[in-house]
Amino acid sequence: MINGMQHIGIGVRNREESYKFYNDALLFSVPMSKHEGRCTGVVPIIEKDETRNVIISMNPYGGAAIEVFQYTSKTPAPVPKLVDFTYNGYLFYGLAVKNIKKSLDIVKKNNGNIITSATAFTPMKDRDWRTAVFTDPFGITGIMVDNGSSKNSGIDYVAIGVSNLEQSITFYNTFLGYDVEIYKYEGECPEWDGLFGKDRKIKRALLQRSTKPQGPFRHFLKGGMIELIEVEG
């Protein structure tokens, strides 16, 4: 049974230093699991059964948790200096925040980097949504979204690059139950010029599950959302 988005994995070079940022700056302050060892369940993805130092932690106000992990059986690779955000696959995570300016100040205070200051969230600008782009101290990208009513919380959504928006919407609707369309938008997105390039035409859709989460974490998960992004040109 799919209960929604439970957590995202973040590979890092130093687990303790990285987790300190996510704890202090983004309030992932409730550890759920902390261990070192192998994780055979992800071998189909990583191809080799490596040992990892892992902590899974959640935000007390809900949303998906984070899994911060560091390989210990090999030297972790650094984040590339230049990231192509037009590729297909995972792009970045989104956080719900209540006061975007204050949240950015906290990120900066904890050695994060502000890529874009608070600006209109183009698909929902008629509802006064605001957004900003930042990275953690080690270069991993995140997005803040302030819709005027949210509390600060854990991971609210993930963005996935796709080659065909309509086909991808059908897949996530049919097979994963993301059947509610929060928005569908096509055009330029100035708030993301720093990621995708200036004046690029973007197709994007934010999807949510209508079925409420079940199981022991149902009060925290909130179901999660997925944003599908197709960059033209």
TrEMBL record:
Gene3D superfamilies: 2,3-Dihydroxybiphenyl 1,2-Dioxygenase, domain 1. InterPro entries: Glyas_Bleomycin-R_OHBP_Dase, Glyas_Fos-R_dOase_dom. Signal peptide: none annotated. Residues 5-140 form the Glyoxalase/fosfomycin resistance/dioxygenase domain. It holds the Pfam family Glyoxalase. This is Glyoxalase/fosfomycin resistance/dioxygenase domain-containing protein.
